[in-house]
Amino acid sequence: MILSGGAGTRLWPLSREQFPKQLLPLAGTHSLIQETLLRFSDLSRFAAPIVVTNEETRFTIGEQMRSVGIDSGAIVLEPVARNTAPAITAAALMAVEKDPAAILLVVPSDHVIGDVPAFLAQVAAALPAARDDGRLVTFSILPTRPETGYGYIKRGEPLDGHPAVYSVSAFVEKPDEQRAHAFLTSGDYFWNSGMFLFSAASFLREVEQYAPEVLDAVRTAVAGRTVDLDFIRLDAAAFAASPGISVDYAVMEKTAHVATVPCDIGWTDVGAWSELWRIAGKDANGNSLQGDVLVEESHNCYVRSEGILTAAVGVEDLVIVVTDDAVLVTPRGRAQDVKLVVESLRRQG
Ligand code: GDD
Ligand code: MG
Fold it and tell me: Is the pTM of this model over 0.95?
């Protein structure tokens, strides 16, 4: 199941509401969602994908799926964004309808995974705990900075009979800076990657317990769904009645059945330009140059042009992104704040 509902505001001006970052080729020849689809396209291991997204991006997603040879799979449309708990609940309800024993691998559409075979091996390692023990398994990552935008997982003991899988003694979604620092230095905490493996039925049991209003609303929305060409539309009024809440707050922080598989897979949530700079190839001065760009005596910059020749001289640690209709300039260290521009543009209408 692929989550494709985010707007990617920190990657403005490339990422736009109509064309969010997962539809862009930000870290390779394919778009992020195409890279995601291709990771799990081996039909001997995975069923056809369920992509949960919105009206605005539906045709582009359909085209992008077909153009990488994925012509089966469901595209489920949310009438309004209600965050990830309702989106995953909808997919889980449809999955158990088809197969009561269905196992869901939930992945965001906008992550980069450098070592896909390693990740697939960890998915295989997680499977018995998900299938036989009803565990909600999250794939976790060794943290490298006190990021406040992620969830943190305190790893517990190895699970009996499941060598690569650990119990979780705490799950803290998006801590403040002080706690993030403490988690990083403690060495006991991992990042939640936001990728999960669980049986759809076990997940729904937890939603019933911890977020019953989400389950009620989404169950009605799924029961009232309509199918139009390639798209499955959830009932609008019913879905809109669901609380908007992420799966991390609604279920993962609360459930007693969470477990984790620590992964070393070259994972990145490409949330901001600074992360694209981090993972990109660089010249001898640490600059990442994309498109028709030229830099002189500059260091550690990310310079990207989608069109016109763009030049920089004597600058350090900057992000410069040029598109047909907008130019962004910001220090790399402020890349998280690009969302302020988007908020301000929205206010201006
Ligand atoms: N269909 C749908 N509907 N998808 C959504 C919605 C929605 O309403 N909201 C978000 N998504 C998608 C996003 O496009 C993204 O692919 C994924 O769900 C996760 O949402 P984010 O908004 O990017 O979450 P986050 O980055 O703040 O936090 C999550 O990911 C972190 C790692 O990247 C959490 O799981 C954290 O715990 C985790 O550390
Ligand atoms: Mg994210």
Answer: no
Of the candidates 127, 124, 96, 112, the residue with the CA atom closest to the CA atom of residue 38: 112
Q: What is the pLDDT of residues 280-289, one digit of tens each?
A: 999 999 999 9
Give the ligand with the smallest distance to the CA of 234.
1
Residues 283, 312: Cα–Cα separation, whole Å: 14
Bond before 13 cis per omega within 30 degrees = yes
Look up the ipTM and state it. Answer: 0.98
What's the rounded Cα separation, in Å, for the pair 343 and 349?
10
List, as ranges, residues with CB under 5 A of the ion ligand 2: 269
309 neighbors 290 (Cβ within 8 angstroms): no
Q: Which of 15-29, 199-213, 215-229 has the lowest mean pLDDT?
A: 15-29
Strand partners, 231: 75, 228
Give the position, in ligand 1's atom list, of the atom nearest the Cα of 247. Answer: 35
- For ligand 1, mutation pick of 24, 84, 248 (most atoms within 8 Å of CB): 84
Residue nearest to atom 34 of ligand 1 (CA): 194
Q: What is the pLDDT of residues 252-303, one digit of tens each?
A: 999 999 999 999 999 998 889 999 999 899 999 999 999 999 999 999 999 9
Predicted confidence (pLDDT) per residue in 56-76, tens digit: 999 999 999 999 999 889 999
